[in-house]
Design a protein that fits this description.
This protein is α/β, with parallel strands linked by helices and 543 residues long. The chain has 17 helices and 27 strands. It has a seven-stranded mixed sheet with strand order 2-6-5-3-4-9-8, with helices on both faces. β12 and β13 form a beta hairpin. The structure holds alpha-D-glucose-1-phosphate-6-vanadate and cobalt (II) ion.
């Protein structure tokens, strides 16, 4: 085995987005594409010499090939040790846990998360820092700067590495530990939650349907839900990770997780339904014939987290991404704890969690998590819900109704306009931004505008400023619309329009969600001229 230095030249467009570098799989498979980016991760973080990394991915097409390339590159760059999931499998939250537990220098996650996989799908690489969280902007900026200057990469000439066997091997001076992907994660969950109460819940006949969407959470959910906690065999569906996620779109929302939605409807539906995404960091929660919006889930979890051992008497604050509904703000206010509002993307929660300012965090896109790691965590959210249901005694549908009766309901929906021409999307945002200063006091769609701005975030811990994170327009009565462009797509641009309407505690909580939001959508259309810019008269995906 020998190491070689391969001359290369910069490749345009290797700029990490909301969550790592995401491109079409075919682009990642071009000679040198992955190698360039991985070398820049090492170079942009002070080199790999003597360092330890966690390495794994969500099992999508090209996962195993990429793992082999990265092992050979880490060895050639002088890394001391790699911790690799068996068969190259690790969920994003499992990686975050391993980085923290074994105090490594960081981790590399191969995933394009909720984006479809396969030869014609998407691939991605995320770098997580030593705190277990997604690299903050100053690190991703340094990595990107390197991609524009790179001249060579280092790689070992080695035959296939035995990552299918749990155990240890070495490549040059680098030690590679191939581990069981689930065990350390399960050990952590056991400490956080009242497993005995959840076991008793299942023993009493409680039924769950967990849709792993042919993605990475399958092995985790099978082992923990059906194995340790005693849910009936068959409770976890689509449990085998497949390279193209069974041809589906591993995005846990009512549109893509339709198999779960139909399982949860009708008189014989299970008591609780959940789904997770490609890399296991997101969750979707359902009751019988009921979808719990991620924003409501965050609010409900915050209100009841004290029923889980990890959060009893130990709750300092909560944080949500800006487009996430303001339901959790009301809970935080009543609990007398701070509520932080951050830009979209989990990397912005890291400092708040490290500083002990936030205990729970969440995003409207079905990401929920806590200070137990530095990523959102799909199965964790399911277990927290189960812990709450086991200890509270009410069912999820009743809990949600009671919550609205107490706090009011934030009707909420996201409308996505996908794969629109980039020029049209930026044209819409530019025109909208230009109109903001004059909006206050005007009326749109029958709603009076209280104020409008382009969200910028000053990190309360390190003071870093992140600007132009999306336009928010506030209306009288607590309604709101937010517009921003996605940072995870790989083709054209995706416009996300987030609609929210508040109905007080004594109001009507039983309206059809889209009907309830139609005045807010009308206002968004008037203010942003969506159909004019996009040429579409409605969204492609409504969740
Ligand atoms: C989307 C979501 C965002 C999430 C991000 C990564 O980003 O809106 O809330 O953090 O995906 O999720 P965007 O820029 O497309 O709106 V995933 O599960 O990559 O890890
Ligand atoms: Co994800």
């Amino acid at each position: 085995m020998s190491f070689k230095t391969v001359p290369t030249t910069p490749i345009a467009g290797q700029k990490p987005g909301t969550s790592g570098l995401r491109k079409k799989t075919a682009i990642f498979r071009q000679p040198g594409y992955l190698e360039n980016f991985v070398q820049c991760i090492f170079d942009g973080t002070g080199g790999a010499t003597g360092k330890t990394y966690v390495l794994g991915g969500d099992g999508r097409f090209f996962n195993a090939d990429a793992i082999h390339v990265i092992i050979r590159m880490a060895a050639a760059n002088g890394a001391a040790r790699l911790i690799v999931g068996q068969d190259g499998i690790l969920s994003t939250p499992a990686v975050s846990n391993l980085i923290r537990k074994y105090e490594t220098d960081g981790g590399i996650i191969l995933s394009a998360s909720h984006n479809p996989g396969g030869e014609d799908g998407d691939f991605g690489v995320k770098f997580n820092a030593a705190n277990g969280g997604p690299a903050p902007e100053k690190i991703t900026d340094a990595i990107y700067a390197r991609t524009q200057k790179i001249t060579e990469f280092q790689i070992a000439e080695a035959s296939a590495c035995p990552i299918d066997q749990i155990g240890q091997f070495s490549l040059g001076a680098t030690q590679i530990d191939v581990i069981d992907p689930v065990q350390d994660y399960e050990d952590l969950m056991r400490v956080l939650f009242d497993f005995a109460a959840i076991q008793a819940l299942f023993a009493g006949g409680f039924r769950i349907c967990f849709d792993a969407m042919h993605a990475v959470t399958g092995p985790y959910a099978k082992r923990i839900l059906e194995g340790t906690l005693g849910a009936p065999v068959g409770s976890v569906i689509n449990a085998l990770p497949s390279p193209d996620f069974g041809g589906g779109h591993p995005d846990p929302n009512p549109v893509w997780a339709h198999e779960l939605v139909s399982a949860m409807s009708g008189p014989d539906a299970p008591d609780f339904g959940a789904a997770s995404d490609g890399d296991g960091d997101r969750n979707m929660i359902m009751g019988k014939d009921t979808f719990v919006t991620p924003s409501d889930s965050l609010a409900l979890l915050t209100a009841h987290a004290h029923l889980a051992p990890a959060y009893a008497g130990n709750f300092t604050g909560v944080a949500r991404s800006m487009p996430t509904s303001q339901a959790v703000d009301r809970v935080a206010e009543r609990l007398g704890i701070p509520c932080f509002e951050t830009p979209t993307g989990w990397k912005f929660f890291g400092n708040l969690l490290d500083a002990g300012k936030a205990t729970l965090c969440g995003e409207e896109s079905a990401g929920t998590g806590s200070n137990h790691i530095r990523e959102k965590d799909g199965l964790w959210a399911v277990l927290l819900w189960l812990n709450i249901l086991a200890r509270d005694g009410r069912n999820i549908v009743q809990l949600q109704k009671d919550h609205w009766r107490s706090f009011g309901r934030n009707y909420y929906s996201r409308h996505d306009y996908e794969e629109i021409p980039t020029k049209a999307a930026t044209g819409l945002m530019t025109a909208l931004r230009a109109s903001l200063p004059d909006l206050a006091g005007k009326t749109a769609g029958g709603l009076i505008i209280l104020g409008a701005d382009d969200f910028s975030y000053a990190d309360p811990v390190d003071g870093s400023l992140t600007e132009a994170q999306g336009v928010r327009i506030r209306f009288e009565g607590g309604s709101r619309v937010v517009l921003r462009l996605s940072g995870t797509g790989t083709q054209g641009a995706t416009l996300r329009v987030y609609l929210e309407r508040f109905v007080p505690a004594d109001g009507d909580h039983a309206m059809n969600v889209q009907d309830a939001l139609s005045p807010v959508l009308a206002a968004a259309e008037t203010l942003a001229q969506i159909s004019h810019h996009t040429g579409r008269d409605k969204a492609d995906v409504i969740t």
